[in-house]
Amino acid sequence: PATGHPRLGLARFGGATFQGIARFTRATFEGDATFESATFQGNARFASATFQRDASFGLATFQDDAWFGSATFQRNADFTSTTFQDDATFASATFQGGAQFASAAFQGGAWFGAATFQHEAQFSFATFQDDAGFASAAFQGYTAFGSTTFQGGAGFASATFQGYTAFGSTTFQRNAEFESATFQHDVTFDHAFFERAVTLGPLVCAGQVLLSEAVFGGPVTLSFAARHLECRRTRWSSTAEVRLRYATVDFSHAVFEYPLTIAAEPVPFVVAGGYLLAEASLASLPDAAVRLTSLRGVDAAHLVLADVDLSSCLLTGTVHLDQIRLEGNCSFERVPTGMHWQARRPVRFTQRRTLAEEHHWRARQPAAAPGWHAAMPDVGHAGPAQLAPVYRALRKAFEDAKNEPGAADFYYGEMEMRRHDHATTPT
Question: How far apart are CA 236 and CA 224, in angstroms?
Fold first, then answer.
């Protein structure tokens, strides 16, 4: 009587059928609320409802609209294997406990805009047959969309993910929008399948963006400000542009069927409304440079690099490296500077651009001069016989680009490797 809204203790509606409108607007459920296997033939109105204990809608069927806008779930909310045949609205809902939507079927639109998930949010194996909107949603715990299928558009614009986020093995059949999304931990899209054109970002990730073994079936534009980007064994079946800030990137064994550009963005990304994308979570990094760590196993015939740091990039095993295009300021490692003592003799190295793998090889030599960088433990060893062809291919790439001074450095490197390769016959 004090509020004019329903207040229920223990609520057991398991298996019930609501033939008309089910009105629970602003209701308070003080005990467990069970709607498992219930059928809602008309509208289900739970807008602004409060569930003080566990709420279970597992295996329920909503044949008409389901309204949970501004609802508050103070404990666990279970919608496992629930079927929403029309629109499902959870806009501005608050999930203070775990939110389980695993294997749920959203046959109409699914609207979670501005919803707050304070603990685990589980959408694994869910199916979204129409548009799914998560714009401005806040995911504060672990978030799983693994093996989920988005048959309509998937909108995560301005969403915030504070815990680990998994989109692994997810299928995006239409547009996937993550503009202005913020990931404060790692986010994984490994084994994900993007069937059509996709634009991911601009977004910020304070951890790693994992795209390994993802498949892109249409044109791709990726705009990331992230610490790390892993694209191992990815497949790109159309043109692609990857624009990055801060990122350390691994593209080993990726497959490019069409031209792909990896470029460093000199200034922060501009998002809708003309605002700059906030990068506060990356402020501890020394600079916004993009560093490529591996192109091993890649066919570089369609690859364009612009303003990328290649000083630590592994290039042995890269195919058609002579056809790679290097635009802008693509930097390589340098040889040690100054005077060094080697076998009791003073040595001064000729200044030139050099490969990271030459550093690794020279650092392994018993009488190595100081200043050569040793390889990490998990990096395979390459010797002069493997490095000479890499220098030769890069020399040709620079010559084709009319960069004769740059080509000279790699010609010198090739001769150095041939000199140290004891299997090479002097000519």
Answer: 17
Take residue 155 and report the two structure tokens written for it. Answer: 């909108």
Note the pTM of the prediction, 2 decimals.
0.91
3-state secondary structure of 223: strand
How many other CB atoms are found less than 10 A from the CB of residue 55? Answer: 26
Per-residue pLDDT of the chain (427 residues), as tens digits, is: 788 899 999 999 999 999 999 999 999 999 999 999 999 999 999 999 999 999 999 999 999 999 999 999 999 999 999 999 999 999 999 999 999 999 999 999 999 999 999 999 999 999 999 999 999 999 999 999 999 999 999 999 999 999 999 999 999 999 898 999 999 999 999 999 999 888 898 999 999 999 999 999 999 999 999 999 999 999 999 999 999 999 999 999 999 999 999 999 999 999 877 889 999 999 999 999 999 999 999 999 999 999 999 999 999 999 999 999 999 999 999 988 877 766 667 777 778 899 999 999 988 888 777 888 888 877 878 889 999 999 999 999 999 988 888 899 999 999 989 988 876 554 4
Q: How far is residue 261's CA from residue 328's CA, in Å, rounded to a whole number?
A: 12
Please report, for residues 236, 237, 328, 401, the alpha-carbon distance to residue 260 in angstroms, rounded to integers and kept in the order given: 8, 10, 16, 18
Our measurement of the distance from residue 67's CA atom to the centroid of its chain's CA atoms, rounded to an integer in Å, reads 32
